Amino acid sequence: MGAGVTAGDGNKPFGMTVFAVTSNAKQGDFVKKLTTLFLVALAAVPAFAEQTAPTATPATPTVQAATTAAADPVIITAGTTKIRRSEFENALKTLPPDYQSVAMGSGKRQFADDYLRMRLLADQAEKSGVADDAAVQAQIALMRENLLANAQLSRIEKAVTLSDADYQKAYDANKSGFEQAKARHILIAFKGSRAAQPGKKELTDAEAKAKAEEIRTKLVAGADFADMAKKESDDTGSGARGGDLGTFGHNQMVPEFEKAVFEGKVGEISPLVRTEYGYHIIQVEERKSPTLAEAKPQLEKDLKQKKVQEQLDAIKAAVHPTYDETYFAAPPPPPAVVKPEAGDAAAKPASTPRPKVPIKKP
User: Fold this and answer.
1) Which residue in 242, 243, 241, 285 sits closest to 264, CA to CA?
2) Which residues contact 85 (CB under 8 A, 6 or more apart)?
3) Which has the minimum average pLDDT: 50-59, 160-169, 312-321?
């Protein structure tokens, strides 16, 4: 499955997608996709360099040059273009941590080739006047603003502080939301269910219910749940594990299933639970809520996001923004669909929306 990688995350003012990779991409292919990232991430480097450069004690030109050459050697030379180690490593730092490890390991030379290619193209653009093009200047300005905004956002995030009282209040208010359950189930699908197994006899709703009731009766009488799940369950993923769904929290299952799990008694065989996928027989093995200490990492993430959002909202509210209502008006509704006459052989049946996923994927 493809994965988009952005210059920021969901909280950033702009989530610029700079490249995409696939889970089975070769390392060489992966590294070749990084050039666009440099164009985004390095656009504002000169501005940041002025702000972050450390103050040093003045030295004589000769001594200073010798010190720089020793501490920051040139590692790539191409004509008049020279790339120092610090420049190369600063480019690496613009990548997400997982990609940095590849670019600093087996992909380092390929990464260097791509970085050099970018520098050579940039030099040509400067010499040929491309850098003065109005459209290019507008893009550079936008990328610079995005980087500045992200840098300021990082400062805001780092400045957020949380007290013990903040954690306790959030924990008390959302304790039920942290509750987790460990359960197993057996699913008997009926005709039309996406869980119905190819090549297996399709059951009507009544037949599926009757079969599920029969299995439940055997379980209540002492039959082994895991063995029955492996033999009978139409959820083949969990069925192979004896019906085990692992541990999950609220809002991870369809409503009917979740209600049965979090309201039923631990250890008992549940009554049949009907969902759009069929009839479920559920056994809740464990249900517990994490302690404050266990919930603290998630609480910290949620509370910081909330406080940052509050500050962003305050920044916006302070300047009283107005919008051109004509430009930002809602688009007109789509034209009405003309219904075909009865018996029109060319008419196509309406598509059926796909149902939501019923259970957590294994």
Assistant:
1) 285
2) 72, 73, 74, 75
3) 50-59
Backbone angles phi, psi at 351, to 5 degrees: -75, 145
> How is domain 178-288 classified at the architecture level of CATH?
Roll (3.10)
pTM to 2 decimal places: 0.56
**To the nearest whole number, what is the mean pLDDT of the chain?**
81
Does residue 279 contact residue 205 with C-beta atoms inside 8 Å?
no
Per-residue model confidence as pLDDT tens digits over 326-335: 999 999 998 8
The yes-or-no verdict on residue 351 having pLDDT over 80 is no
- Helical axes 108-128 vs 85-92, angle rounded to 10°: 100
- Whole-number pLDDT of residue 340: 58
Q: How confident is the model at residue 62 (pLDDT cuts 50, 70, 90)?
A: low
Which residues 6+ apart lie within 8 Å of 163 measured at CB? none
* Distance from C-alpha of 73 to C-alpha of 84, rounded to nearest angstrom: 6
Cβ neighbours, 10 Å, residue 30:
18
Cα–Cα dist 260/271, whole Å = 9
Beta bridge partners of 20: 4
Cα 134 → chain centroid: 35
Residue type at 323 in one-letter notation: Y
Taking the C-alpha atoms of residue 153 and residue 164, their distance in angstroms, rounded to an integer, is 24
Distance of alpha carbon 55 from alpha carbon 231, whole angstroms:
72
324 φ, ψ to 5°? -70, 105
| Tokens at 273, concatenated | 């639970």
